[in-house]
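Minutes, structural biology subgroup

Action item carried over from last meeting: produce the structure token record for General transcription factor IIIC, polypeptide 3 (Halocaridina rubra). EB confirmed the sequence was re-checked against the source entry. Recorded below for completeness.
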Amino acid sequence: MDHVEVEMIEADTVDEYEDEEDQPNEYTALEAAIPTIEAEEVGEDGFGAFGVNEGTSAAAATAEETEDDEDSLTEPVNTKNQEELINKLMTDGMSFSEVAAMLGEDADVDSDVDDTLAMQESERGEEDHAAEFEKELSEQQRYQLKRKGSGEKRRRRRLPAALQGLMGEANLRYARCQYDEAIKMCMEVIRQFSHSPEPYQTLGMIFEEKKMVNKSLQFLLIAAFLSPNAEEWEKLADLSLHQGDVEQAVFCWGRAIKANPQNLDYHWARCNLLEQLGEKVKALKGYTHMLKYLRTDQGKDGLKLAKEIAKIHYENKDIHLARDAMETAFKKYPSYVTPEDVNLMLEVLMHQQEYLRCIEILIAHGDVRLLYKDLTEEQFQEYKLEDQLSVATECFVPLDLLIDLRTKLTVALIHVKAFEISAPLVELLMNESEEEFGDLYLDIAEAYMSADYHEAALPLLRPLITSKQYNVAAVWLQYGECLAAIDQMEEAAEAYSQVVQLAPQHAEARLTLSSIQQSLGKLDEALLILNQESDKEPLDSQLLYQRCKILLDQDLIDDFINAAKLLFRRHFIHIRDRDEAEAMLSNKKLSNKYEAIRDLRKSKGENLEDNSPAYTGPDVPLEEQWDLFVTMCNILHEKGRFEELERMTFSALGSKEFMKDKERAREIDFMCLLACIYNDSSYFAYNIMRELVTKNPENERCWNLLNLIISKADDFRHNRFLLRLTHKHPDLVALGLLNGHNCLVAGTYKYSLAEYMQAFKQDPSNPLIPLMLGLTFTHMACQKFSGKKHSLVAQACAFLNTYVEMRGECQESMYNMGRAFHQLNLLPQAIYYYKKALACLVPQSLPEGPMLDLTRETAFNLSLIYQNSGSTNLARMYMYKYIQV
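Output recorded by EB:
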């Protein structure tokens, strides 16, 4: 081919591409992904090793003759990419997603329509559109002039003449079924001119004939990318669907939409497939994208599109968006509105309780009219719809109006309290068969019930409960609600009994029936209805709670406690033994409690989970559960069932519900402490009290409780704890007194004197301290080998007298003085103070407090003195006079 012939080829091709639109992203990406391929050797199967060759083809020879042709025909060579692409294509090693990735294409056509506005944006004024169009036109013209001036060259898509001949020969070989030769020729064309779609199309047809569908589809996809034709993408989408690859079909429809966005069939097909895949959001974007291409004469498509958008919004609970879509379509295409469209619109409006708007829609699109008297039409139209309903005497409904729309009209009228004009419509519906239209009966009955007009709902429900199809628990439940609302309790109880019989798991019906039976005075029946068998059915918490309340009201304490325990097992930890109780106390974090219990049970080889029953239904409000728990604990305390009280309070420590609240958690800790004290579990009580004292060292009540626990404890763990605490709080009087008590009990009187004296210096007005000092000196004087007993007794008397001065002459102080002299064997002084104690007034004790009267103790000690001295008559006299059994 000479130089003149090359110029003629360019003249045939360049002019054509001067008129084409740019393909900026698709083709450049494709050219980068499919570089120049040169065949070095070709095997028998048509595919050989590929590499860079000097090339001796006709196209290469032509390229050497002119520099311009060389720029337009050659491409950058990347040997590695060449071999990778061809090998994958020929061995089925390349999937569709990989092809799309190598071509740099995004499978989601919505990526460029995210900023698409709603339908209202397309309704701007004609002047704005004209101004925008002129602006865009001028910018486009300037852009085209700039491109021409810059000398930018475009890629040529049509094959040169030499390669056209080779491509024609390949097509002839394909027609003669000489597939291997045709494949070799196509690959040679691809090697020299890779951005032409023709060889890929031929390869796709060849592999389709060879039943290699996947490979055929891959080559056809590449051809479609190189020549973006909407029909080609449509065929590929159908082929993908035939293979069952819905996602690939979605991609193909997206490319078809880009090639021809005016074809709404492509949009519908793609959005329908997206809905099948569950991609509701992408489908919604696709529907919204369609709005740009709707014309005013496409009202049918516009309403169909609005319905699809509304359905997706309705499923997503975006009711207001669904309504906006339908309202816009109704305003833009009112002449295309169908009864199905009206029905969907009414459902959306009723979900928003826009009943007046429902009536407006039916008046506008259903030929419904409000009839009136004593008014002209002009006067009537001046009223708002709400006022029109109040003066209207009748509602005219066309005979051809669908019964569903007529029912919705009736429901809307009932909700706006237009009972008079809705009554004829209800009667008209009741002429229909309840077996066939029972659901419409129910809709109207529910409307009456929501409007608190239960008397009108009963005639609609009675035929349903006697029918075959609607004799179900839900209808009986509504029937019972209506009867209970009009105070027909006996009939309501029968209706609810039928509900419980048809649906035993319906907890609300059982609760209501139980309440009705209580109001009728049938408490045994009320309890029987709430009875549940944990081994046969899941337990409903609400039923259990209601049963607990009834049992408590009837003073059935044992049954109440059992029912309450069953209720709390839903979130309490069941404490099996003492080790688990200790694990609950030693761990403060709730998760650590559960982990410690699991580890403990695992180490013992026990079942990790408790055999607790299954629970169902909504949980009882936390405040009501707490009140019930406190009530149960109080009853256990009153009944003296301290072991059960301790177990329940320890179980509550593992409650995820109660322990969330810090105030309740502190309350439960204190209840555990009290339960341990009452149950004489001094070991656990000391563990709890130790933490309380550490956190509240200034609280005297904490020290009093600790002293109480220590006095009942069987061990001496507290000694070291108190000594360690002394180093942190050396000025605490209560702590010094407890250390003094420990030393006094241990017989180390000198240490106890040191502690008491330090406390006396800090708090000289406390009468307890001189009493303890006097008693310590008394114990020291009574020791067998103590020296200077006279001095010790004198000091004891001095401190005891100080105590009496601070405390005053009362039964307590006189008894303590007598008891000290009694221990010192100073019997006359002891008798003197004992008699003064008997002569003192008895202190009044609080009803809930301990007995503070020391009369019997004093009389008994006196009788011992007289009995030891031989005065048995005096001893008997004091015994008979003051001590009565």
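Discussion: Confidence is low (pLDDT under 50) at residues 1-80, 103-108, 111-131, 144-156.
Next step: EB to file the record with the rest of the batch.
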